[in-house]
Structure formats: structure tokens, C-alpha cells
Amino acid sequence: MTIHRRAVLAGVGGGVAAALAGCLALDDGDDTERPALSGETLRLTTTTSTYDTGLLDDLNAPFEARYGVTVETVGLGTAAALETARSGDADVVLVHARSLEDEFLREGYGVNRRDLMFNDFVIVGDPDDPAGVGATEDALEAFERIADAEATFVSRGDNSGTHTKELEIWAATAVGDERGEWYREAGDGMGMILNQANQSGGYTLSDRGTYLSMRETLDLEILLEGPIEDGPDRLANPYGIVAVNPAVYDHVEYDLAMAYIGYLTGPEGHDRIESYTANGEQLFFPEALSADPNFEQYVPADWSRAGND
Predict the structure, then answer these.
(1) In CA terms, which of 28, 64, 87, 268 is 20 to 30 Å from 4?
(2) Residue 17 and residue 27 in one domain
(3) Is 225 a member of any domain?
(4) Which range has the worst mean pLDDT, 3-7, 160-164, 281-285?
């Protein structure tokens, strides 16, 4: 998956919206009769990065007003968000670890997955950069330099999407699992991890959105960026949204979940995601609107059309 800011900012063609079937555009001037959803509650479990940045507050308010419903949002690590849905305690899940999402789909708990948006991961640390991460252009080398310098690295340690990405990087380095006392597993959300890295003068892996939303309160700098600023593709950070399968749990609000997915992946959601900023910076980049629909977004990424046409 290659993501480059310039390609994204080129925009979506005018004919794309007309090709979207079933997407909900919210028009406050629409006088048509509302569906019988009023008073219902949609239970959304999501990653801390979408929760802590305030994005979902901005996205959810128009949807709630349109249908007279409540979106009950719980911010967790990706693994915990998916586990909550496995237990039947969520109607829809918005997360950012494709391998864990695929497992959720294969097990039959999730249906109708859609690509929603992306940003990227960044390696941040003290401006003095004792490990020399800023001199690298590769995430593997950056992690190896941190290990060689035995510089403090604060890990999420919580099976979140960010933690999953971090472990993937360590596994591909010469360091592997051989990490010493300099490596600290905190077991906390992204905001708390950034604060701990800030206090310790250490390094951490962060999603770009959470870092940018907190940048004014931190003494940390981005030392290696992902593909939004032409950095390594290894640091790409795509987000997906998945409805919980009503065939597994008949009590889930499936119709409401699909209305919500339609809203987020339609023109209204696209525009709100694209225009949402913190400290003057765009935090997320929408990718649901596409002139060339991607089959692979709905099913596990290693499935193929071959033999299934």
C-alpha cells in the first residue's frame, strides 16, 4: 500500500459521488420522513487515536442530530475494541490494524468492512535525538539505532493497532525480541504514552493524528515520518470500519450500524474527515470515495477474485 500526500490532495473526481450506491449524504434541509431509528443507541468501539483527537465528536454530532440517535463511543486499543465486539458488546468497530481486522472477518464476527481513512505512523523523540533516528530514512534502521544506543523506548504494550505495527517493525529488525531494560511496555493509550516518552526523554511510535493534536504540550519532535510526507511505506496507517455480524448476535443494531458506515464513507463523512484539523494540521485523510472500488477492502486482504468470478 503506497500513500503519498500529494496524490491524496489531488482530490476526488466529480463523477465519483454519483457512482456511490447507498451512501448517506446528510442534508439538514431534507424534509423526507426519517426512518424509525429515533431513540436508539449505536455502540461504537474504536482506537484511542480517533477518540483522543476529537475527530469522532465532530463526525458523530450530525449523524446523531439527523436520526435522533446516540453514538456511544468507547476508545480502546484495536485488539480490545475488536474483543468487545466479539463479545457482542458493540455494533460497529473503527480500528487500524488490518491483520486483526482480517481475523475478525474470518471468524465471522464482522461484515461489510470498508476502508475509511488513513494517516501514518511517526517515530518521535527528544530533539537531541541521542540515537540518531533523524539521520535515517528507514523504520528498521531507526529502531535498530534506538536499540544500539539503549535509548529509552516507550511502547504501547496494549495490543493496539500502534502496538501491532511496532511489533511488526521490531520483528523485521536484527533486534527481534531481544530488547533490554531500555524498552518500557506501558500498557496505555497513545496520549499517555506520548506524555511518558516526553517525561523520560525517550522515543516512541505514534500515529500522526494523536501526536499533532498534542504537539503544543510536548517537547518531542517527529524524527522519522511515514508516507504522507514521502517517508517509508512501512509506516502507513490505514483505518477500517466494520459492522458486527447480526447473524452472530441478533441484538446488534445492524441497520443503524450500516447507516453510520454509509454516512462516514459518503460525501459528508469524507468532507468532515478531510477538513478536521488540530493545531493547523490535517490529522486524517479520507479514502472511502473511489472511482475504482477496491474489492479487497470488504474481505480479508489475502482473499482473491481468482476463481470466484
Answers:
(1) 268
(2) yes
(3) yes
(4) 3-7
